[in-house]
Design a protein that fits this description.
The chain has four helices and no strands. The protein has 137 residues and is mainly alpha-helical. It comes from Micrurus lemniscatus lemniscatus.
Length: 137
């Protein structure tokens, strides 16, 4: 989130269109958040699903033969593999949805600063009356 905010601040520092900054920040935030969620959650999630399924199967079949235990492990591994992609997509979607309001909060301070800076930079120069008196006008 901080990376996205810093890049957007630098890229849109002098842009008068606040909406372009917001759109760019949200696009970047979505891509970075989705990528980080996919990278960090996949392997631990796969292991967690497989372990929980093995434990559930073992509880259901308390006195299982070695052949049944092997089948339980294979079934748990296959089910975990089949459902991991769906679970990762859900985590990815949830992370992106939660990051949106956070980005808006961070951009609120940036946009306030941007409006003030642009007002100062784009306003016509102020000529004080005391300057007229010094030059004799």
């Amino acid at each position: 989130m901080t990376t996205c905010e810093q890049i957007v601040r630098k890229d849109f520092a002098l842009d008068s269109e606040e909406s372009r900054m917001r759109v760019a920040a949200h696009h970047m935030m979505r891509n970075l958040t989705a990528g980080m969620a996919m990278i960090t959650c996949r392997e631990p999630l796969l292991m967690s699903i497989a372990t929980n399924l093995k434990n559930s199967f073992a509880t259901a079949l308390r006195a299982a033969s070695p052949q049944q235990r092997e089948m339980m492990e294979q079934a748990a591994a296959q089910l975990a593999q089949d459902n991991c992609e769906l679970a990762c997509c859900f985590i990815q979607k949830t992370a992106v949805e939660k990051a949106g309001p956070e980005m808006d909060k961070r951009l609120a301070t940036v946009s306030t600063w941007l409006v003030m800076a642009l007002a100062i930079l784009c306003s016509p120069p102020v000529i004080h009356l005391c300057l007229f008196s010094l030059i004799g006008i």
